[in-house]
Amino acid sequence: MDEKTINEFGVDGFTLMEIAGTRAADFILSEIPSGSHGIFFCGKGNNGGDALVIARLLSQQDYNITVCFLSGTGELSTDADKNHRLLQKLDTEIEILDWDDFTPKEYDFVVDGMLGTGLNSSVRAPYSDAIEWINNQRSPVFSLDVPTGLNADSGQIMGTAVQADFTLSFGALKTGFYLNEGFDITGDVILCELSFPNKYKNPTAYLIDKSWVEANSFSPQKRDHKYAEGVLYIIAGSEGLTGAGILAAKSAWSAGLGAVVLITPKGLLNIYEKQLEQIIKKPVGDRDDMVFKESHLEEVMEVLNEKPGKLLIGPGLGRHSETITFTQKFLKQFGGDAVIDADAIFALSELDHWEKPESATWILTPHPGELKTLVKTDLNDGLARLQATKKLSTEKDLTLLSKGMPSMVGTESGDAYLTGYDTRVFSRAGFGDVLAGKTAAFWLKFSSAEIACCHALLNGHTRSIQYYSSNSGSLEPNDII
Fold first, then answer.
1. Average pLDDT of 213-222?
2. Is 103 exposed, middle or buried (0-12, 13-18, 19+ CB in 10 A)?
């Protein structure tokens, strides 16, 4: 975007640098009181040039400024060198020194303008030494564009990285802020808009934004009767795993649906009758059946044909050989809308080749391990998982909610969405069942598969915030239902 805006559109790099520095300076002015002493660590590239703009602007607002060049001033980029010369024209006293002359002392704030977005190898001295010093300070640290040492695409730390309190991201948020270690070292991310034309913007992903989700959600009509908006069917449970079906059903019911129907082997019916008063139960098979079997297929299809709706299949289904066969054959012939979760994903991954029926619409909700078995490829980091999520969604023509940190939503069109908040609190047994129930319920309410996934993720996040506002203990799945 930067290169095309300069070379094709005609906004020169020095102007973009001035805009970036001005917006970053405005933010620092709002956080740090006048009269404070700041240390600016500058590399020789444009990231250092951005820092020099900020140093110049703050020096005119009664801030005490020290600038430290990590690689000297002999090889500065063209725009950084121009800003260095502008700094020297001021009538304000600014301390300028090289790293070799840097004497550690306390500063009121630190600005990291060392390496920026282009880093693709491990950080070396003296930058690694400066990072070590910065990370030992108590003063707030402002990183420009990305914290030095963080790979802007993958979110991996390249040997060592600045632990920022604020990351002032220029022109666009970086994917690496939300993948791998990125989330833990960026601090509060502040977007500083630049004048990039929209035609040059080609996002890797979008952050899931509450206002956007709500604006694109068609409000459900008031129902005349409980079946007016359709029924959510849930195929779940096996001996020893009924808790998953209970959590999924309760979660779906909490979304305000008119009717939730749980399809269960008849041998488990008594357990569900005691736990799920509001849920309609449809038992299949005989009283001694504790798992789904191939012989249940016809009965299950008859239940699903009773009323229109959507389906969730998988929570606590188990991995009995007969259940795997039942699931594989069911998914091959069911032509409706289905959220495929947990053990149903496992059954799918056991096939050498699988395709959804042409008339079917699917949402898959794998955790990272399940996604790995689906794509049959090692997913070593968050970027690889994002790429696999987008690829599988488009190749198989489905929506994919990839659980983990961050959670991701891949769509049939190739778009992808990321959670911009910490999802690690949900990495315990049972939370996936709650998420699957909410996803299916919101799909029934709002029609759009991708909007349903976003609603489900945001709903869990909102409820977790509400829980922690008055509790200090560990979050349980029931706490976000």
1. 78
2. exposed
Is the distance from CB of 237 to CB of 446 less than 8 angstroms?
A: no
DSSP string for residues in 255-286: TT-S-EEEEEEGGGHHHHHHH-SSSEEEEES-
Of 89, 83, 20, 95, the residue nearest 52 (C-alpha): 83
| Two tokens, residue 470 | 């008055």
Quick one: pLDDT at residue 220?
59
- Residue 479: count other Cβ atoms within 10 Å of its Cβ: 17
Which of 222, 203, 119 shows the shortest CA–CA distance to 162? 119
Element (H, E) at 408: strand 408-410
Q: What single letter denotes the amino acid at residue 276?
A: L
Over residues 308-364, the pLDDT tens digits come to: 999 999 999 999 999 999 999 999 999 999 999 999 999 999 999 999 999 999 999
232: CB partners within 8 A, 6+ apart: 252, 257, 259, 260, 261, 309, 310, 311, 312, 440, 441, 444
Q: Phi/psi of residue 405, each to 5°?
A: -120, 105
- Specify the length of the chain in residues: 481
Residue-range domains of the chain with CATH = 2-202 (3.40.50.10260), 210-480 (3.40.1190.20)
pTM of the entire predicted model: 0.92
The packing angle between helices 431-446 and 242-254, to 10°, is 40
78 and 2 in contact (C-beta within 8 Å)? no
Going by C-beta distance under 8 Å and a sequence separation of 6 or more, which residues neighbour residue 234? 245, 248, 249, 252, 260, 261, 262, 263, 311, 312, 313, 315, 437, 440
Residues 6+ apart with CB under 8 A from 210: 458
Q: Which residues make beta-bridge pairs with 272?
A: none
What is the Cα–Cα distance from 304 to 314, expressed in whole angstroms?
A: 15
- In a 3-state reduction of DSSP, which class is residue 131? helix
Strands 166-170 and 188-192: parallel
